[in-house]
Write a structure and sequence with these properties.
The complex is a heterodimer. Chain A is α/β, with parallel strands linked by helices. The N and C termini of chain A lie far apart (about 50 Å). Chain B is an alpha/beta fold. Chain B has 25 helices and 37 strands. In chain B, strands 29, 30, 31, 32, 33, 36 and 37 form a seven-stranded mixed β-sheet that branches. In chain B, strands 15-14-26-25-24-16 form a six-stranded mixed β-sheet, sandwiched between helices. The radius of gyration of chain B is 29 Å and the shape is globular. The chains are: A alpha/beta, B alpha/beta. Chains A and B meet through α13, α14 and α15 of A and α3 of B.
């Protein structure tokens, strides 16, 4: 479905990250309009627009803002989750690199709406380029009077602190992010209380994703009805899909929510090796994988769930028939094993175990009971772990076994009668890793 | 006067928590709002397996062992996934199904247990925890009988000594975070924390920062696996081979409930008991690990008598009693006998000394105070401490006090259990602490307390200057034994309490002091808060005792020592007293050297037995029954722990000795002593509190500094002998002083400082300390009273408020130089 670019409309213009260019292309007009509105009306407008959080869970943004208790005598904070760690996801970084002011404008509007005077942008530590760019943009905005005291004469005060994380997947979990931001060990907090009442420094806090807030100025300018015209009613708006894998032109594609993979592959110029699509993730590795039978599933929050997965971070990783699903799942599981924060037993121990089983299977050393063990371990992690990291880690394993169990079985000597295929994998891995084993 | 019923109702509603009714495994139960599911289930006798959960720690939800199914949250909807019962609170109408009725909960628990075990080493046969291990037990009750894990276990080098006392085995750790949460939330010593992540996550310390906490042993006790073990107990025993006896700690005046584990007449280890009114479930490391003092080579197991060559030789009870009796009889008639019972006795033993002095020796010359003291203090004890009960001030009332004013008292050093209880409250900002002290100690900082910086000697003035309005209703003034050295300070504390309406409590360091006051082991006091000067009281006690009570109030410890030195007193009978604890040890030694006759009732050879003519061996705390009276005035009874040693407690030895002197003391058994104490009861009248005017405090001056001092929790106290690991927890031995004071003395931060008495002209003793520049008043130098190898009293006879001299030391090695 064709779409006039919204979030990416300045991408590709001359130095779109500069404030002058931003202003020339409608920049900060959303803020000016917002400042003429009552904060509660702004919250109502965002609620009305049905904007849902782009960080993965798709929680309604307006509702999140409304949860912030008002007149409670406490400072309020807006925290931007720019940790973007989900494998396959590369959506926030392009926004921050190409159009940082759209996020900043969204932040100021959000601060105004929830009565906050201080926002924190928590950027993944590895993304030094983004930290620099956002910092420069914040300084520009400050110099122009969009940040600081009495913004545009409105009486609004707002400051933004840019903070670089230290590189941990768990710090994309909002409460772990808050702890990390406070200088503590990044591990998820017990909920309740929720950040809306006891967030950063125990004060009411909104945690929003980069893409979510970058959408806000457009909603303020275009109105809730305009926003809802894009995509399905339940999860409307524009979405940046991160396309990677076996397609001709991997990259970020902006399209309305509810775009199908078939359409996305077309946009990306088709499959790269001319092979058949085998499996793909709709929203990062933590969302159960889809197969060719899901080519026409609309990729929005509700439809993806209906089809047995999740929209997640709309990180679409595409694999073709020559790709081994077992190897992909092994790599993802090793990622979760490495990134599990260690706080809770199921995630910490479960991923340690499943990674070893998958490694053995891939190396041709699997046993007949391994596949059932894998499924049962996943059952003991899913819904038992402290936060969604553990849940997400089970997705690739369970979903791949659902669609591709024979491929696993083919690697297990007891089940296929020979160890030939997989022994080769072990030898290749040795070459790759320098034979540390 | 009647109060409005509406107010009553409101008050009642505030006091009575709202009840919430839930159904657990088909059984309805009403519990207070906010109750966790795991606690509600416990009330029904349903035990949900758990590791990270601990009722006194904030919920973590980390181990996920306690998952239950919640088919109805009370709103008709079920929870989509199993809930951690240790973090979920009850909701009206909630339906909870535990492993007993829910296959989902049961599988979830079995699954978590299996995961916990995949990386757990099979150390059980050699692990200290084996036999009392929650992991072992719950693996049996809620786990699979076989493992499906055939891969490679994660390993770590082990053990790692995270302090002198505590060893860490990271392989056994289930990362429940009980230890880290205890250290942060309860002790305030967050020196252990989680490191790394995923399966590599582990407990650890920062480099060069050991787990230096007075409360570290609690982490060993609450560790649900064998990951944290105590260095002293490691590999010493299996729990099922030990006998466990509930007992009471003999160290400080908190009177903590403990559990003593022992076998073959020897104590193997001690654990915190569970007494919600006193120490909850915590004890300090001294209470846990300082118990080997009664099993040292210098232990006295048979009576000793000094022979004609001046040697103490082993004797028999009949001979020793005969010698003691004849010596005392003669001395009684020649000049009198003083009695120094010491401050570490049970109430029964102290009572026996008090009665023995009056009925056998015919004197009131008895004083339990083996430390600096004053007449003002004796008057204060008679007026404000004798007969005190927890109705006055208790652990619980401290927790609820809006303001606590500390004067001459360092809670963490002098009464660690009180420190923990106060911290529990200050952490929630329920209680505000002020401290009249020369500097903000680490303990005060952990209480988020406000320092009212006061030079030694100026405490009385500081108390007088404290705004009574700060002490809102329910506030408490806590004074320490150090105030006895400051003229007018205890009087000022009483005056402030009176003016403000605040409660006043005295927290001495030793376990036996309040009991000794109640027992009348003090010159002017008779048992049950009665006055020697009160004729009716004398007659009443005399009637029960069948003896005439001497009318002249007795002498103090210092006066008794002086009497011995001057020859006015012919003999002394001494309980557990270390002469080095007295204000002037050298003087006391001289007095004891000169004393005509000395009977010592001791456990071990000491500074007193050195001079004693007869030594009667007595039982240690574990070898006897009795009761301590803690600072609250709460009786802390305990039974005999180690049976069959045959060691006699002081009251039995005194009973036997009295017998030899033809007096039936009637105190042969603990029951007999208690019955007599009960028969006497407690008087209702109290004498007027002292009103001593503040003395002129010496003006601190960098050229003539004043000493501030108190004893630290872990030091050279003799009851801490025998455990090198515990000694390793002692704080670094430093003297603290301001930059100006240090500059005037030519001492730099970290350099060695030489502390001497002011009048010393070089030939007196000196003690060397590492100087630490701190925020003290100029002209004040602080040093620990009795740090190992650095005892101030023995070396320079200087105490809190004394003038001292400081200088840079030429030698670099710390330690006492005599």
């Amino acid at each position: 479905m064709p779409l006039t670019p919204v979030l990416t409309k300045r991408f590709g213009t001359m130095q779109p990250w500069k404030i002058a260019n931003y202003e020339a292309l409608d920049g900060y007009t959303g803020l000016r309009k917002a400042l003429t509105m009552a904060p509660d009306d702004l919250i109502a407008m965002v609620k009305e627009s049905n904007l849902r959080g782009r960080g993965g869970a798709g929680f309604p943004t307006g509702m999140k803002w409304q949860f912030i208790p008002q007149n409670d005598g406490k400072p309020h904070y807006v925290v931007i989750n720019a940790d973007e760690g989900e494998p396959g996801t590369c959506r926030d970084l392009p926004i921050m690199m190409n159009d940082p002011h759209s996020m900043i404008e969204g932040i100021i509007i959000a601060c105004y709406a929830v009565r906050s005077e201080h926002a924190f942008v928590y950027i993944r530590g590895e993304a030094v380029h983004a930290i620099r760019r956002v910092t420069a943009a914040v300084n520009e905005a400050k110099a122009k009077g969009y940040l600081g005291k009495n913004i545009l004469g409105s009486g609004l005060n707002c400051d933004i602190t840019v903070h670089g994380g230290a590189g941990a997947y768990i710090c994309g979990e909002e409460t772990a992010l808050l702890d990390s931001l406070e200088g503590k060990r990044g591990q998820p907090r017990l909920k309740p209380p929720f950040p809306a009442t006891n967030g950063l420094y125990d004060a009411p806090t909104v945690v929003n994703n980069v893409g979510t807030l970058a959408s806000v100025p457009y909603i303020v300018l275009g109105g809730a009805d305009w926003f809802k015209k894009m995509g399905p009613e339940g999860s409307p708006g524009s979405c940046i899909y991160s396309l990677s894998g076996r397609i001709k032109n991997p990259g970020q594609y902006e399209a309305p929510m509810g775009t199908t993979l078939r359409e996305l592959i077309d946009m990306a110029g088709g499959m790269s090796r001319g092979k058949e699509l085998k499996f793909w993730t709709p929203g990062g590795s933590s969302t159960p994988m889809f197969t060719a039978e899901h080519l026409d599933t609309p990729l929005d929050f509700d439809s993806a769930v209906k089809a047995g997965s999740m929209n997640g971070t709309s990180a679409v990783m595409i694999f073709d028939e020559d790709d081994s699903v077992v190897l992909a799942v092994l790599k993802w599981t090793q990622f979760y094993e490495h990134e599990s924060c260690g706080k809770c037993t199921p995630c910490r121990e479960g991923n340690y175990w499943t990674a070893q089983i998958l490694e053995r299977i891939w190396h041709g050393e699997g046993t007949a009971e391994d596949l059932d063990s894998l499924l049962d371990i996943c059952d003991n992690i899913l819904g038992r772990s402290f936060c969604a990291l553990g849940d997400g880690a089970t997705s690739p394993i369970s979903s791949s076994l659902k669609y591709f169990r024979p491929e696993y079985e083919a690697l297990i000597p007891e089940l296929n009668g020979s160890a030939g295929i997989a022994g080769k994998n072990k030898e290749e891995d040795k070459e790759l890793t320098g034979a540390t084993a | 006067m009647t109060s409005a019923p509406a107010t009553d109702k409101a008050t009642a509603a505030a006091a009575e928590p709202k009840l919430v009714t839930v159904t657990i495994d088909g059984i309805e139960i009403s519990v207070p709002e906010g109750t966790l599911l795991i606690r509600a289930a416990e009330q029904l006798g349903i035990q949900i397996p758990r590791f990270c959960d601990h009722p006194l720690l904030e919920p973590a939800g980390a181990c996920r062992q306690c998952l239950v199914e919640v088919p109805d949250m009370g709103n008709g909807r079920g929870m989509p996934k199993p809930a951690a019962s240790c973090t979920t609170t009850v909701m009206p109408g909630m339906v909870i199904k535990t492993q007993l009725t829910s296959p989902v909960a049961d599988k979830a628990q079995q699954g978590v247990m299996e995961l916990l075990l995949i990386n757990h080493p099979l150390d059980c046969p050699i692990c200290d925890k084996g036999g009392e291990c929650p992991l072992q037990n719950q693996a049996m009750s809620n786990g699979r009988s076989d493992t499906r894990f055939h891969d490679i276990k994660r390993t770590f080098p082990k053990p790692v000594a995270i302090s002198a006392n505590v060893l860490l085995d990271r392989e056994r750790c289930v990362l429940c975070q009980r230890c880290t949460r205890f250290s942060e939330q309860i002790a305030g010593d967050p020196f252990i924390d989680l490191l790394e992540r995923g399966a590599q996550q582990q407990i650890g310390t920062a480099e060069d920062t050991p787990f230096q906490s007075y409360f570290s042993g609690n982490t060993v006790q609450i560790c649900p696996v064998g990951a944290l073990t105590g260095a002293s107990y490691r590999f010493r025993a299996r729990p099922f081979d030990l006998l466990s006896t509930p007992s009471v700690c003999e160290h400080c005046s908190s009177g903590c409930a403990i559990r003593t584990d022992w076998r073959r007449s020897k104590v193997t280890r001690r654990l915190a008991g569970n007494d919600p009114q006193v120490n909850e479930e915590w004890i300090c490391d001294k209470g846990r690990w300082a118990f080997k003092y009664d099993d040292q080579p210098d232990r006295i197991l048979t009576p000793l008598v000094r022979n004609e060559d001046g040697q103490l030789v082993e004797s028999t009870w009949p001979e020793a009693l005969e010698r003691a009796a004849s010596g005392l009889r003669e001395a009684r008639d020649r000049g009198g006998v003083g009695v120094l019972p010491g401050g570490r006795l049970t109430e029964e033993d102290a009572y026996a000394y008090a009665k023995f002095a009056r009925t056998v020796l015919g004197t009131n010359d008895v004083d339990f105070r083996a430390r600096p003291h004053s007449a003002e203090e004796a008057a204060f004890l008679a007026a404000c401490v004798a007969g005190v009960t927890p109705e006055n001030v208790s652990f619980d009332s401290l927790e609820n006090a809006p303001v606590i004013l500390l004067a001459g008292l360092e809670l963490e050093e002098e009464s660690a259990a009180v420190f923990l209880r106060v911290r529990k409250s200050t952490r929630l900002a329920k209680t505000k602490v002020f401290s009249i002290a020369p500097y903000a100690s680490n303990g005060l900082r952990k209480l988020d307390g406000t320092l009212l910086q006061t030079a030694p000697g100026a405490e009385a003035a500081a108390l007088a200057a404290f705004a009574a309005t700060e002490l809102t209703p329910g506030s408490v003034i806590l004074v320490g034994e150090r105030l006895a050295t400051v003229p007018g300070a205890l009087s000022a504390a009483v005056a402030l309490a009176k003016k403000s309406g605040a409660k006043l409590a005295w927290i001495p360091r030793r376990a036996g002091e309040v009991g000794a006051v109640n027992a009348g082991a003090l010159g002017a006091l008779l048992p049950g808060a009665r006055q020697v000067s009160d004729t009716t009281a004398r007659e009443h006690v005399g009637l029960v005792w069948g003896a005439e009570i001497p009318t002249i109030p007795g002498r103090s410890t210092d006066e008794i020592v002086a009497g011995l030195a001057e020859g006015g007193l012919a003999a002394v009978m001494v309980g557990g007293v270390d002469l080095n604890d007295l204000a002037n040890p050298a003087h006391a030694q001289e007095a004891f050297h000169r004393a005509g006759f000395i009977v010592s009732l001791e456990m071990r050879h000491s500074s007193v037995t050195k001079y004693a003519d007869v030594v009667l061996p007595i039982a240690s705390s574990a070898e006897k029954a009795g009761r301590y009276v803690n600072w609250e005035g709460r009786r802390r009874p305990f039974d005999l722990t180690i049976t069959s040693t045959g060691m006699m407690s002081d009251h039995r030895a005194l009973h036997a000795l009295a017998d030899e002197l033809d007096v039936d003391l009637g105190l042969a058994s603990v029951e007999a002593v208690r019955a007599e104490i009960d028969r006497l009861g407690t008087a209702t009248d109290r004498p007027a509190a002292p009103t001593v005017a503040p003395g002129t405090a010496p003006q601190p001056n960098v050229d003539a500094p004043i000493l501030a001092t108190w004893a630290e929790l872990i030091d050279a106290g003799r009851l801490q002998d025998g455990d090198d690991n515990l000694a390793g927890t002692a704080k670094p031995v430093v003297a603290r002083l301001s930059a100006a004071t240090a500059a005037a003395a030519g001492v730099s931060d970290g350099a060695v400082l030489r502390l001497t008495a002011a009048q010393s002209n070089g030939d007196g003793g000196a003690v060397l300390f590492t100087a630490q520049i701190d925020d003290l008043p100029d002209g004040v130098v602080w040093a620990p009273t009795n740090a190992a190898g650095h005892g101030l009293r023995a070396a320079i006879a200087a105490d809190h408020g004394a003038k001292v001299a400081i200088a840079a030391a030429s030698t670099a090695n710390g330690g006492a130089a005599q």
